[in-house]
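Throughout this chapter, every protein is written as a compact record of paired, labelled lines. The reader may check this reading against the record printed directly beneath this paragraph:
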Amino acid sequence: MLYEKALTVPAGTPETAPAEVDLHLTVGVITQIGAQFAPGAAWTVSAYIRQGLHQIWPTNPDGKARGDDSVVASDEYYELAGEPDLVTLGAYSPNASYDHEILFRIEVTPQPLAERGSKLDQYLSGIGRLLGIRP
């Protein structure tokens, strides 16, 4: 299931008081996350996603996604086990001169399908290593 939510980040939004919006998801596994930055963002807007106090994207707690007329996306495997299945989309832009809108996209896959896909990836990687074609 694909979830999509826009977040407007006012110019000059400080890191200490970011723009945030909550998004309710279904139980499953987050298998892909992305953020689309409009032209003109010029890497002045920093975005993140967290669940509670735990930042889930980018994975490193001090990391933030940035871009300009681009999509920053990654494959993930983050289990949403039950209530609350709420994530917070956030961004700040202390040096921006204009408001910017970030379009977040989150793919949630039912647990059994996500597990099968993960096992298949591991199997194919193992075969590739044996054949010397994958690291």
